[in-house]
Each structure stands twice: as structure tokens, then as C-alpha cells.
Amino acid sequence: MFIRKTPTRYHSINLVRLMVKKFLPFSMVSFSEFRTFIGVLDQKSELNNQLQPGSIRKLVVKIYIGTTSSLMKKLRKEISVTPLAFLHINVNLWTSRLSKDRFFGIQLFYVSREWEVKAVLLAVRHFCPSGNLLPGRSLSDILQLWTNKIILEFNVSYDKILSSTSDTGSDVKRLCSVLIPESWEWCLPHMLNCVLVGAFGTGLNCVNIRNNGARRLLKDLKKVIRHVNKSSVMKQKFKETQEKNNRKRLKHLSDVSHG
Fold first, then answer.
1. Alpha carbon distance 69, 80 (integer Å)
2. In 3D, which of 99, 245, 227, 91 has the Cα closest to residue 172?
């Protein structure tokens, strides 16, 4: 019924969903090539008239509200019948290598009625707190304000949050300790990374290295790889040796830097 009565709006919403999913810029709708393409599909030009950057932003907000509402209903229904009436959250604060912008994300975990662990991404927000929040507050205090807002937005009760996970960053670790005292646990990939750094002596601080033997071995291997990469003669010998021993050429990994 919705499609028949408002086909233009229906197609606009689907297009916006595609733009969000594929990280396409809103300004794309202003490109002449895009408008020509849409004009071929829509001879009446109704869709072209509606697709403006301003209207796209409004549709994004409406789609977010609708998606959030559906997710909240699903969460309430599944959590109400879960055999374990406790939740777990994972918090992350990271910096984009390209833009240097910081982002804050929260995941919620729970056990379904069928005893399956379910994960829901509640939010990924551009972390750029306003100036009035900064004076007199630590970064972890501001993160707690943001966490509270997201948790309350999805009507999640703090009483049901049993534990939390993060990396060992002081800000997010303190956030979890303040928010849910004595319930912080290691993120397994981050813990494994720290274990391997300690085991192979690849930490940036040479003074605190506990396995100098492994560190020296890795440095010697790097020298060999670097020499092969820089020498055309060694590259050819390396290729011939691989073909002789393996009957095919294997991929030659480049030198990977460590501290």
C-alpha cells in the first residue's frame, strides 16, 4: 500500500539506505551524471525534484528513528524472555588513521531464548564533545555522559548490565570501572595482542623488553627480508628457490616494522 500511494518517497528512502550502507556522500544527488541517470529512470522527474541534500538529511534522521524504534521493540521482546537476565556491553574509543577524527562505539550482548549469544551495535558516534563539557572533566567522565545517553536512548536498565569489556586504554577502562564497578574484563583480541608483544619482545619501549632474544631474532629476519626486497638478484634467487621447492611461487611478505 505504501509503495502504491507514495512510490517516489519509497524509492527515496531506499536510495538513502543505500547511501548510508555504502558510505556515499549526500552531495552525490547534486551531481549532473546522477541526476541524468535518475531522469532516465523517472521520466516525470518526481524523484529528481525530491532528491536534494537537505531532504536527504531529513530522511536519514527519519530512517534512524524508525530503525531505532524497531530495534528497541526487538530488544525488549528478546530480553524479556532471556534465560539469563543480564547484559554485557563493549565500549570502544578509536581514532581514524585517515581523518584523525575520534569515534565512540557501544555494543550490547545478551543470551537469547535459544541460548545463543546475540550482539547488537547500539551506536557509533563521532566523538567531538562540545566545549562546555570539557572544563573540569576528564575524558572518561565525558565518555560516561555519552554512554549514559546512548544506554538511556535504548531504554536499557543499568541494573541488568553485569559486565563490560574494553581495551586497556585508561579512559575506557576507567569508564567501565566507574560505570559498572569491578566488572571490567579484557577484550580478548587486545589481550592476545599484548601477550604476543610481550612474548616476542616487539614493544616500542626497548627498556621494558622481557624477551630480548626473540626481539633480536625478529630484527635479523627483518634484515633478511629487507635485503631480498632491495636486491633484484636475491629476488630472482628467492623466486627460483620457491619454484624448486614448492613447484609454485609463494607470496613474498614485505618487511613488517615493529619497535
1. 17
2. 91
Cell output for 105: 562505539
Residues for the chain: how many in total?
Answer: 259
Q: Of 76, 161, 166, 71, which Cα lies nearest the Cα of 123?
A: 71
Question: Residues 86-137: pLDDT tens digits?
Answer: 889 988 888 888 888 999 999 999 999 999 999 999 999 998 887 776 677 7
Query: Is this prediction's pTM over 0.85?
Result: no
The CATH homologous superfamily to which domain 81-186 belongs is ATPase, nucleotide binding domain (3.30.420.40)
Please state, as a whole number, how many other Cβ atoms lie within 10 Å of the Cβ of residue 100: 7
Query: Measuring CA to CA, which residue among 72, 51, 71, 48 is closest to residue 60?
Result: 51
Q: How many Å apart are CA 94 and CA 154, to the nearest integer?
A: 23
